[in-house]
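hey so i finally got around to running the thing on that chain from the lab meeting. sorry it took forever, my laptop kept dying and i had to restart like 3 times. anyway pasting the input first so we r on the same page abt which one it is
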Amino acid sequence: MTGRRFWLMGALMLPLAGMAAAPKSIPMEVWKDPSCGCCKDWIAAMEKAGFSVRVSDTGNKGVRAQMGLPAQLGSCHTARVAGYVVEGHVPAREIKRMLREKPDAIGLTVPGMIVGTPGMDGPAYKGIKNPYEVLLVRRDGSTSVYQKYA
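ok and heres what got predicted. didnt touch it at all, straight out
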């Protein structure tokens, strides 16, 4: 093969090499109220972190109960990723950690709507960052602290 042909073949294959190295997105389903702005901001943060999000604007209370998450651990949106429940404003970092560790659990939650969590951290909140805990929810409904944020 001549030098020119070799160069041309390499140039044509370069985009394919980049495609093979690209990380796969992680599928996620989210249920939320259609008018919730903080849910939209959380979803945008998940997409930026590599999740491929499918959204249902049907509310989340019914699906939360169906997935076995106790109501007192609830928030404004519910997600399902790889068979786990993710309730509320859980950071992508902890979701990815859960997917790596694969705990025997229902999933993760940040109950309520805490200012400073992903989706509750935009300009409207003026940089306020309240401390919060990401909870691991076991199959019996009990919880333990998975990660603390100050």
